[in-house]
What does this fold into?
Amino acid sequence: AQAPATPAALRAKAKDLLRVLPDRKAGAGNDTPARIELGRKLYFDNRLSMNDSQSCNTCHDLTNKKGGVDNQPTSEGAFHKRGERNSPTTLNAGFHFAQFWDGRAKDLKEQAKGPVMNPVEMAMPDEATVVKKLGAVKEYKDGFAKAFPGVAQPIGYDNMAEAIAAFERTLITHDRLDDFQKGDDKALSALELKGLDLFLSIGCTTCHNGPV
It folds into this structure.
């Protein structure tokens, strides 16, 4: 039988095929703390749906150890209808080269605009309705002004999506595989090291490579 790879050899191979996720998403230069905080509030706010029942977090759950998903075959929308696809995780989504399962959105900002007005999902009828609803909330009047300073009318659908995207760009995971790749030989168990060796050797990385 072939001798197992040493941690050093595995690390070199992993760093070549997988690499460590960076601490910050490229293109996040305009993501100020105020913009990220506004996006966080919007992400968890049910008022983005027509009947105040759905937030981004409803289907992309960052709480309850769900890892940015709802663990359902297809997600239930504001009026109890279900879509045709399940909800992908928002964790590390900023590193994807396209968004949605079919890749129809070019980035997080474009993706964030879709579910709010999707009739099956959050079911808002149009952008104007969303903007009017947000504009009636005092904390958003202040939050948008801080997040988009110098803008005559900071509360807008485009800025809403930009703020949500800014928050989602912070959703970067860090785990023991990263620790191992950074040099910690004890980060992974012997069984996990064996699994990593197999993963890197039998072709899994043809589809599963990264970090982007």
Summary: The mean pLDDT is 93. DSSP finds nine helices and no strands in the chain. The CA atoms of residues 42 and 164 lie 7 Å apart. The longest helix spans residues 157-168.
